[in-house]
Amino acid sequence: MGYKAFREYKGCQVDISEDIFITPRSIQDLVSSFTQGSVIFAGPSGILAQNNSQFFWDNTNNRLGIGTVAPTTPLTVSQNAAALPSSSVLIHVGASNDSTASVLCDSFSTVSGNASSLVLRRSRGTAASLSAILNNDLIGEISAVGYRATAYATASRGGMRIFAGENWSDAANGTYVVFGTTPNASATWTERVRIDNAGNVGIGNTPVAILDVGISDSTWVGFPFHLGQDNTNSTIVLTTAGTGENSRIQLESYRGTHASKTVTQVGDTLGDIFFAGFTNARKSGAKIAAEAETGWSTAANDAPTRLIFGTLPDGGPSIVERLRIHSSGGVSIGNTTDPGNTNLRVTGTLTLEPLTAGSIIFSGASGVLSQDNANLFWDDSNNRLGIGTTAPGGAGIDIESNTASSAHILITSANAGPTAGFTLRTARGTLTVPTAVQNVDLLFRLGASGYGATGYSGRGVQLNAYAAENFTDTAQGAMFTIDTTPTGTIPPPTERVRFQASGGVSIGTTTDLGDKNVNCGGFIKTLGDVSKPSDQSIASSTTLTDDTALTAALNIAGTYGVEACIDISAGLANGGIKIALAYTGTTTSYNGTAVLFDVNVTNLPAGTMAHTQTIGAAIILYTSAAGGNGFCWIKGTIIVSTTGTLKVQWAQNASNVTATTVRTNSHMRVWRIL
Predict the structure, then answer these.
(1) Dist CA 118 CA 402 (whole Å)
(2) pLDDT digits (tens, 9 = 90+) for 484-516
(3) How far is 545 from 647, CA to CA, in rounded Å?
(4) How far is CA 656 from the centre of its chain?
(5) DSSP-assigned states of every residue in 457-495
(6) Distance separating alpha carbons of residues 509 and 237, to the nearest angstrom
(7) To which H or E segment does residue 26 belong?
(8) Residue 560: how many CB atoms within 10 A of its CB?
(9) What is the pLDDT of residues 535-563, one digit of tens each?
(10) What whole-number distance in Å separates Cα of residue 39 and Cα of residue 48?
(11) Which residues of 290-311 are buried (b: 16+ CB within 10 A; e: fewer)?
């Protein structure tokens, strides 16, 4: 061949601008300086060149090496200084140490379907005589192989495999894809995920549902999702992290289609959860369902719903509704009637566990339902309530206390209207058909009893209310009695006081003397009837001093009668005595007299006496030249406007070292008049 140019050969420039002829011997001389295996390429200015270590042809094994002089495959591309391990693949790529071996495909096109791609093809037969692949033939694989203790693994240990899903024809090319891994402590590739020719995904199985996880079960063919396990729990865990975020399972149902939805109607099921087991076939045993209640519309938030809980009765053919939570918040058990917001309506028997028979349920700490069987007990057999006892006696309510505090009933009212009260009602006849009470019928009884040597006695004291006439709607007179048990006897008690319907009081008798009259069958000890238990002396003092015993508390504003007898011993001639009445509250007036009654002689001793009717000032001022003992009376009426204490005060009339003494058995009596 010939060409026209200048070339340099062995340091000399050769003019080859005219056509020349090069013989084979001349070509051999031209390339005799290249290394064996070098692939000749045009270098700068078109000069033939070689890079034997980076671009090498193994003519013995028909292998091309890029970046290596020791290609192990028909095409070996390496960035590593060392020879790559042997391989049986067609193309072998190796990276330098601590680098990633990767293959990059770039694609540039304005056509949407054009892209970089990796295409794996498979045919039966030979390259010269192709034939169709068959069902389950492996079409292609992308796999990973790692180095073991002494050598690389001989087969894939993880990756993706594509198989024929049927015998192929020109019109039938079904496939399925399998993803696999190798378990720890194993050298066997194991299928983990399969996407079948219908698009169903199986994790750990051959899928029968759109998503089929775990053990395959033909029962669920056609269902969107199936999760099955043998000898372990089938569990779905949803985890969400972040402020205001949450894990969620959302069930939705529509009328119409996804593309054209219409308004949900009352009774439509929005979603349900079924619970099933197995007998001779799979059985649905329970369900939780959400249903639309009445009133759905296109208005915002106008979508009331209810929750339905149902179970399958023993031998029953279908699930029966047991509990319903309405959109109002009301709960119905055994019925479908809405009891309203936060209310509970139960048809049948309501049993709470663990409760002890006889327990009365109450709201404990934080509103938790609680029981205290030992202290709050209902005897349903005898219709008795026990407070502080599990064995209530008698009838009605039995309150007992086994602590230092007393058993008692406290009724408190803090209202400006009705005050705290305790009302007992009595009728003849029955509860459903009551009739009028008759004269002397017992209206109520309040009694008290104590424990004797071996047990409790009957009521030792009691308060009774009786009808005082035959009752009508306009005549309902009543009386009240107080009964006590005499010493040395046992109940029943004896009536002591009767408050008559007229307003009169009968003590020791039942005879009524009329309004505001007291009929007493014996001695009356009046308010403030006190006696001095010991002598009291005062010497060298004229300051009025409270007597240590002669006082009376007046707890009600009103008019009182007063009598005081002062027994004086010695000192009458040595300073004498002055006596006064004092009151801690407010008095309106006092009217009375003071009389020196006796000084243990036949006639009054010579002396002087004066008195006043002013509360707080001396009523009696007495000095006797004869001296000796004596006593005096103070009598009168005092009107008080506020509560307080009435006191006898006394001191020496003239200071003297010889003491003046008020003796034992001096006494005072105070009684209310009005």
Answers:
(1) 91
(2) 999 999 999 999 999 999 998 988 888 887 887
(3) 10
(4) 81
(5) -S-SEEEEEEESS---SS---EEEEEEE--TT--SSPEE
(6) 88
(7) helix 24-31
(8) 21
(9) 999 999 999 999 999 998 888 888 888 88
(10) 10
(11) bbbbeebeeeeeeeeebbbebe
